Amino acid sequence: MGDxxxxxxxxxxxxxxxxxxxxxxxxxLAGTLIKRHLKAFRVTPLISLNSPLSRARGWMITANLxxxxxTSEKAITFLAKKTLKACLLAVKKGACIxxxxxxxxxxxxxxxxxxxxxxxxxxSGLSYSLAASLEGCLHVLEQKGLDLAQTEVVVxxxxxxxxxxxxxxxxxxxxxxxxxxECGKQSLDKLARxxxxxxxVPCKITVQARKAIxxxxxxxxxxxxxxxxxxxxxxxxxxxVCDLGWPYFFSVNASRSRTDVLFxxxxxxxxxxxxxxxxxxxxxxxxxxxxxxxxxxxxxERRFENYSSGSALRAGKVEEMRRLGCKHGFRLAxxxxxxxxxxxxxxxxxxxxxxxx
Length: 357
Fold this sequence. Notes:
Elements: E1 5-14, H1 24-28, H2 30-37, E2 41-43, E3 47-50, E4 55-66, H3 73-93, E5 97-100, H4 108-115, E6 121-123, H5 126-143, E7 152-156, H6 161-173, E8 177-181, H7 186-199, E9 204-206, H8 209-213, E10 218-221, E11 240-243, H9 252-257, E12 262-264, E13 267-270, E14 287-288, H10 290-300, H11 315-327, E15 331-337, E16 340-342
Parallel strand pairs: 1-4, 1-5, 5-6, 7-8, 7-10, 8-9, 10-11, 11-12
Antiparallel strand pairs: 2-4, 3-4, 13-14, 13-15, 15-16
Helix pairs in contact: 3-4, 5-10, 5-11, 6-7
């Protein structure tokens, strides 16, 4: 079968103080400095990726953007406009599908806005990101010698798509003790009923985030409604924290002050093509973000559709992406913290749809 092209849009966020300047006056002229020192978009040469079953090719387009808080409506509007321009550049290159590389579960709404104005298919990559986050949680539990069935799991932001789906899937994987945390208990009733119906696991529901995380062996911090602030000192000694927020729930200082706690931001993926030596961000060659893997998998499958383009993710699509990744030989490479792989990524950890290389 012939290979069909994709485009992968990577936002490269910078802060104004990161730009070269020699005076406060220059620093205030951020727009001028951006044009002088940074190109708006950078396009890689054509990338080819092979799986045992198919082949895909495409381009990675880096968009240099000032740092934005994705909880702001104004920021989302700005980023959607810039992302659309990058996607249209992929269209001009001949791409049949575009993938977004925002490492945030708040970014689904950006995909929804862009998809309405794009003449080709679009995916945010968030379905496979959730699959990799799930596998990452299972990975670190096994590395720590913890049994999921005996692990106290607490999900902050459980009313949001990411947190709710992870709670649902962890229950399917065998978690027995799950606490759902959100600002309003009513928003969690439906999710709790669904989980007990599917997996027979009765979930606790609370609005008291700080009290809940003090007993968490595994904490999932996902975007959701506003909850009471949580602090590193609230975390249980030796806890595992999967921080999926944007901005993150816990700062870099948290990882420095709580060295007994393992902080990570989800999983990263090893591609099945040994000839692929392209490095993405701070990841080693051959290891890519799951957002990238999703658009590649869809191209390998010839499925040019708006797969994960909205903020309302679905557990069925997350599980489907796990199956498709396994089908084409994608493997979990390990977990990452702020773009850098943690731990011994060469150690086999578990059998399943994603298998550590």
